[in-house]
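Handout, section B. The chain below has 170 residues.
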Amino acid sequence: MTLVRRLARPCIAGIFISGGLDQLRAPQTKSEKADPVAQPITKALPWLPEDTETLVRVNGAVQVGAGALLALGKLPRLSALALAASLVPTTAAGHAFWSAPDGATRAAQRTQFLKNLSILGGLLLAAVDTAGDPSLAWRAKHAAKDVSRATRSARRATAAAPTRVLKAVA
């Protein structure tokens, strides 16, 4: 693992571990803001708990768990995806600057919204980071090319074989 990855992953993960612990300890402080976002999500995903306070706790647990894994470099791509998935509804619920009552609050919430959007970008980069190894898509594409080349070569060899046999007999 490069030095940049060793430093960047805990830097990104820290905010999630801290925020997730806060959600686990005091979900009621977040559930009122989360309710307008949580209800449509629970309708779309019926396997999630319907109670907003429980949903906030689940979100906090995901953030703590995935944040710790990312910080430690364990399952970094999967943990980055989990954090990205938890960040989207958290941002929509907590930083809805478009519905802020006054200009100062709107500006502060817009800044927090854009900060979270920036973190989301970092998480998406972490989710596709293969640490220098070729991605599965690259490997599959090149394996398909290798098979195609081998097939063409085998066809040519097979097509030329009867001619060689006839020449050898004559």
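Note. The chain is about 80% helix and 0% strand. Compare this with the example in section A.
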